[in-house]
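Running this now, will post back.
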Amino acid sequence: MSKHTPGPWRIHETPTYYGIMADARVLVAVVNKSKKSKVETEANLILLASAENLLAALEQINSLACYASEEDTSKRAEVLLAIGDTARKAISEISDAV
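Update: finished.
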């Protein structure tokens, strides 16, 4: 069971800040409107709102990569093992942070 607020997460704009909302009543994160460009701020918000889906994708990648055998020397196995290592590292960083 995850420790984070379940999604889907959505972006909500107010006159002074952007909120990442889990539903109409649960505020997950706040991003103050700042001097950063609107494009940069919106890109950051999309990344934040996508975090739960990104974690799920990494977990799926990791489970698929586990099918590669470390004894299999084919290029496919090498790629799958590298992808799995990257996914596990990201999952670990996320899990350690929450």
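Helices lie at 38-49, 51-65, 75-97. More later if anyone needs it.
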